[in-house]
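Board notes (copied after class):
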Amino acid sequence: MSKGKERWGVLKNAIVEKRIGDGCESQSTRNSFCFNLFTRKKCNCLEKACAKSRKEENDCRWFAYVCNSMLSIKDIWINHPNPKTNLKEITSFNNTGNVCIWPSEEIMAYYCMSNLDLFCDKSVIELGGGSSSLAAMCIAFNSPSTRVLITDGNTKCVNMLNDAIHTNQMNVSDGTNKAQVSATDLRWDMPATYSQNTETFDFVLCADCLFFDEFRSFLVDTIYSVLKVGGTAFIFAPPRGNTFHNFAELCKLKFTDVVQIEQYNHHIYKQHLEYLIKNKSYKPDVHFPLLLKVKK
């Protein structure tokens, strides 16, 4: 099976109403190689925010993502999409963000928490974060002085993000310490959806959004538009053939500094090396994201 077919096999499962894996126990390409940077704690259904959105206790899809290696990091509550969906939803604009938390998002969130001081008193936007947008959520609720805007081109994702923002705000221990965070629709191929944010953000975050050939140049234009002069974008994505390389080349046409980094975190890189030795099914080309750091 080709690498592309392996990825889209997850979406196929949704169409035929099989369960979409959202934990490491799944046999999907994504979940077989989660890097175990966050553990999940299922909602005990005592939270008021979850009770209003479910009919039965088993319908609850809220999970707290816990970073056990950083005890000071607050848990982030995410409402996972129903594991069954329909053809209308699966064929809506770029539905991949409603499937699961992909490794690049997990790793980007961990990287951001490892470098949290970077974002203090800054403005941050995540592009194409899907229904979890774990990295932006982690920043928003662990660095309240940071302004965070979370975006996706899929309306279902944005609706779920707004629910998650509300739930996490309710779970902040200090009720006066509200995060400056919001979510909105943003389409890279529609400048009108981001023109109001021209040169607004100090940091842009983006995880595993390079696989659509027709949208790659639009993504570069969007990053360049919303980023302040002197700002930085962190793009995490696996090589996936030439997709990462092609995106990097497009960035070099616009940005003043473009750097590809493989060893961006000691812990993550160590796990990567262990997988190479111990797991013959591990394919860095689709499982291990590189970091592209670009400055405007």
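Comment from the instructor: The beta strands are 39-42, 62-66, 76-79, 123-127, 147-152, 180-185, 201-207, 227-237, 257-261, 290-295. The first strand starts at residue 39 and ends at 42.
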